Amino acid sequence: MNKDRKQDITKYWQDKEREIGEEIRGRGMCEYLGGYNELRRRACGLLYFTDNAFYVEIYPQKSWWNSLLGAGSQERSQESILVKINWNIVQDIHISSKENRFLALFSSNHNRVSIKYLQNGIEKLLTLLIHFPSGREKFLECFQSYEQLS
After folding, report:
1. Contact by Cβ (8 Å): 79, 104
2. Position 94 pLDDT exceeds 50
């Protein structure tokens, strides 16, 4: 990765932290599978989380290939759907087990995370595939830390 690209990425996350007013504890690529009102199909996105909430920035018009190459990065804010869920409304997080590491190479199910939460008194289930090393564990740790503090 060239130096300018690294600086752009660093600046993007610094701007995001200023925008949300909190330090981001973890971040990476994800795939939205279902559970959000306005979106009915799979889409690529970014997952990032703080001490108080997690965010899924979904790009319904972007392919994985374009996202990985950074194509159209100027257009992202206009095309994205931002889902913010505060930890205090999350009831449970289920992470699919990784029982067979060999089979996990051929299946994305080992990256699946299901988040049960309450929105306006209605139970919802958001399902994601988390595509970054140790992201699932960090995500769960952040939720558990919030639970212990509250």
Report:
1. no
2. yes
What order of strands is seen across the sheet that includes strand 112-119? 81-86, 53-59, 43-49, 26-34, 122-130, 112-119, 90-95
Contact of 52 with 146, CB cutoff 8 Å:
yes
What pLDDT, on a 0 to 100 scale, did the predictor assign at position 123?
95
Judging by beta carbons within 10 Å of its beta carbon (0-12, 13-18, 19+), is residue 114 exposed, middle or buried? middle
As a whole number of angstroms, the distance between CA 30 and CA 105 comes to: 17
Give residue for tokens 């979106």: 39
pTM for the full predicted model: 0.80
Residue 77 pLDDT: 44
Cα torsion 87, 95, 131, 25: sign? positive
Which is more confident, 67 or 127?
127
Tell me which fold the domain 22-149 belongs to: PH-domain like (2.30.29)
What stretches of the chain adopt beta strand conformation (E)? 26-34, 43-49, 53-59, 81-86, 90-95, 112-119, 122-130
Q: pLDDT tens digits, residue range 11-49?
A: 999 999 999 999 999 999 999 999 887 777 888 899 999
- Count H helices and E strands in the chain, helices first: 5, 7
